[in-house]
Each structure stands twice: as structure tokens, then as C-alpha cells.
Amino acid sequence: MPETKIGTSETLLEELRGWVELETPTTDPAAINRLIDKAEAELRAVGAVVERIPGRDGFGDQLMAKTPEGFAKGNGKPVLVSGHLDTVWDHGTLEKTIPFRVEGEKAFGPGIYDMKAGSFFAFHALREMLRQKVRPMSPITLLLTSDEEVGSPTSRALIEREALASCAVLIPEPAGGPDKCAVTARKGVGRFVVTARGVSAHAGGNWPDGASAVVTLARLITQIHALVDLPGGTTTNCAPVWGGTRPNVIAAEAGCEVDFRVATAADGARIEAAIKAMAGPQPEGTTVEITGGMNRPPLEEGPGNLALYAKARAIAAGIGYDLPKQHRGGGSDGNFTAALGIPTLDGLGCSGAGAHAIFEHVLWRELAPRCETLCGLMETLSEV
């Protein structure tokens, strides 16, 4: 059990509700900044050293809060806790699609599982630690970011900079799957845009004069699909797909997006090279342009991650529940920090289900014990 008093699941849910009812789509920086305003004011009020990094490129601000100098028992490298406040849900979802509600063990709401509950855990644990003057072994750095759902284009550099200065990274993304696991490994994620260009012509009278971009794209899609290796952890998916204008016109342009997932950095390099090699002049008399590549490197399971997991599992056992581990296909900001060689443990948020789905929910009675586990790690981790 952590020394910090976290409170009951009922009290946590009531405050979390306020976070959920502030809708924060990635595409609306002003909306995200309203939640950042709230977190910033409350952290400043208990003595956190707060820095707010202005948003850019159409994204919201980033918030960094640290324990004051001399507050921690040790003066080694800090523990970094990183969560995001943006969600995939547009304005109006709360009113029309996923109203906040409690049904038995489940609390529903847009973004409550991915990942407002986990980011709230991190905020709440730091706030209460400072308020109650519970001194952790190491300094704490909390990052709350605004663009994770689209690949962290403006926050990645900040996350990586703070990770390199830290002894460990904790990611309170949702606990994984029906077994409610911590996450010790994640697949790497890549994206491509494939654009095929051909020559338009009348599909009846001038068929030989045309070169169909759609035919070229169809061939490439089958080649990309052939790269799937489920036992090895590699998947590809081509969607959305577009092309052509009318049935009687040979398509001058077609394209698709490609999502690919890999278990190792070596697989990522191999798949990236294989797909990029498909660009250029084609047998059909068309050309292909391919842009993109790896977006998130894999979070590969290693000794540092496993050591953090062992500590988390021991804390959870002391609280009264088991904490299994899981390898997950989706990416997170933990992919970035683990690739730098910093011990990283993910999946420290709340249990539930429905990320990005209309049944998104948390198991609200588990809010307190899950938050206590994160807080216990924040209190006890230290540089070795």
C-alpha cells in the first residue's frame, strides 16, 4: 500500500467524471487546454513546479509538473509519468453517443478508458502526494500531453527529452484485456500513404490508351497483405482505399493508407524497406509514390521493463489483487521511451474495455486499487 491516501473509488469516480465531461478531441486545442487549465491550477496550488509548453501546429498545450527541489528523499534521476488528455471522440459524443453513466460495475464515457482514468490517476497521485507531504524516493515528473491519438507529433520530443533524464517511465494507459494486465511490450507502428498514378482514357473506345492506377494499386495491396506474419507479430492493413472517377473512365489516380505493426525494430526496418521498394515505375505503365514509415518503434520487453513489472505486481498483491502482464498490439508513448533504453512499464491505468468504441467504460470499483498501485510505484522507485 502506498503511504499516500488515495481515497475511495466513489470519490475518484466523482472527480474523474468532471474530466470526462470536458470533451477533449485531439482536433480542438482550446478544449484540451481547458482541461490542462484545471490540472495546472490544482497542481500549482499544492506546490508543484509547473511548466506549460504552448501548443503548435493546431494541437493543444503540454503540461509538465515536477515535485519541488528537495521534496523527494533522494536527489537522483526522476521517475517520469506520462499520460495524454486528448481523445478520439468529437464534440457531442457525450450528449449523443456515450453519455457519462454508471451501470453496475461499469462507468461509461468518451475517453474514460483511453485514457482519462489513467491520466487522472497520475495527476491525483502527484497532487495528493504533495498535499499530504508524502516524500517519494525519487523526484517525480508528470507529463500530460495533447496529441497522442494522432502519433504525438508535437509532444514526442518533450517525452523523449524527459525520459532520457529519468530513471524509469510509467505509462498509465488502460490495463490490458480481460485479465486486466500491465503492459511490458507493445508492437511498433508504421503508416504509409500509397499513391498510384496512371493515364485516363475512355474505358470503351480508347482502352489501349489508358493505364489504370486502380489495377496497379490492387496489385500492390495484395503484395502488402502478403507481408502479414501472425506468428512473428507482423500485420498490415490497407484502408481506406480510393481511386477513379467513373465506371467508364480508366483511373488516372488511386491510393490507400497502410497501417503496419511489428514486434521488433528489425522487423520494422524490413517491412518499411519492402513497402518502399514498391514505389516507382510499374509494369502496367503507371507510377507509384509511397510516403511515410515507422511512427512508433516497438516497446520490446527487456530486463528493465520486467524489473518494473515485478515491483508493480508486488505492490498490487499487497493491495489485494493480481497484476498479470501482457504484450499489446497498439502503440503508446511508452514505445518512444523504451526505444531509448529507459525502463518503461505501461498499462498502469484502470481496467475496463472499449477503447475507441461506443461501449467505452472502466470498472469503476477498481479505480482506487489501480491508482494505489501507480502511486506506490511513484513513491518507491529510485535510481539504481
From TrEMBL:
Residues 184-281 form the Peptidase M20 dimerisation domain. The keyword Hydrolase applies. Keywords: Carboxypeptidase, Hydrolase, Metal-binding, Protease, Zinc. Its cofactor is Zn(2+). Transmembrane segments: none annotated. One of its GO terms (molecular function) is metal ion binding. SUPFAM superfamilies: Bacterial exopeptidase dimerisation domain (SSF55031), Zn-dependent exopeptidases (SSF53187). The keyword Cytoplasm does not apply. The active site is at D86, E148. This is Glutamate carboxypeptidase.
